[in-house]
Sequence to fold (409 residues):
Amino acid sequence: MLRIVAQLILALAYGTGILVAILARAIPRRGWQPNGRIVVMGTFFNPNWYHSHVTPLARCGLREVILVCDKPADPMENVRFVCPPAILSAIASRAIAKFLWTMLAGIRYRPDLYMGYHIFPGALFTLVAARLFGRPACYQVTSGQLELEGGGWHAENRLLIALKKPSALIETMALALVRQFDLIVVRGNDAKNYVRNAGYRGSLAVITGSVKERAWQDWPDRDNDLVFVGRLTEYKRPDRFVATVAGVAKQIPRVCAVMVGDGPLMRELKDRAAALGVRENINFTGQRKDVETILSRSKIFVLTSRWEGLSIAMMEAMAAGAVPVVSDVGDLRDLVREGENGHLVGENQIDVFVEHISRLLGNPLLWRRCSLAAARDAIEFSGIEAICARWRKSLTEAIGDASRLEHSK
Fold:
């Protein structure tokens, strides 16, 4: 019954969005004078995620990024926070409250473009707002085809989770909604190909989150052998990280691992580590604000997810010189070059994770070569200046008036 209800709600939501998008295009519109503002609707509970995505937008030459979110994050130049009151979010739901505040922001600031993260509900609501105000709409596909395939049933949104299994109906409607956007931004080539194969013919750009260049630390300055950064949910498969640590510990008994993040699996993971005899090898830190420092003091970054777009945590780790040993899923291979700056491992091949990690930990010269290559490649691929340039180009084209986008400093 829950699955049926979820399908009905999603079908109604997507159907309404598609209908509004189509009908609104038929309304005669007067041209507008771009003012260099955009509205971005999203959830920014993770400070690293916020800085990675919002910083290049704020620096790409826009006059102002109007961020519609649950509560203000760290202040940033050229960023204005527009947050609905908590009581409205409690009564109407967080998503509806942010949609209403997006509409109010549209009335007050007359932005040039509306942007949303994730197809439901962020991108859906910003598409509706954009069409009602006669402006272009941008959808950021943060998790690759995971967000759309099967209707997005393995995403973390509660309504999508309620689907429990793939839904052909919801996938069809979600892809029909996707085709209504003026600009779609993906993290890597696999996601780009998926969106094109789904019939999208509009502007499509590959733009990742951004990472900062930092001083490289050599082997003696890194006291963490392994590090995992991510929310402790089934989607990230942190249980595989614990199993990998146990495998490495058989060869390197004093291996030191750090698990950064929190989530519903925390207690279960600690129990599993104890059962495997590696509870003392793993430091479960919970959520931290000094992730950059932890990464710069770590030798190897391990990502065991069953699906990813192009992981920001991995890019940050590589920029800090941590060598990636990660699942070969999603768009991770866009940045990881097998044997040169890290390793790609078949999903759930714990023995292969253990093999690559043990070899790197046993050979500082090999690690150093991969570490330097990882740091160089991450900055070239996703350094702030490179990402600013991609955003400037894509937004200028979508808005249609380059004169209102100032040159970045």
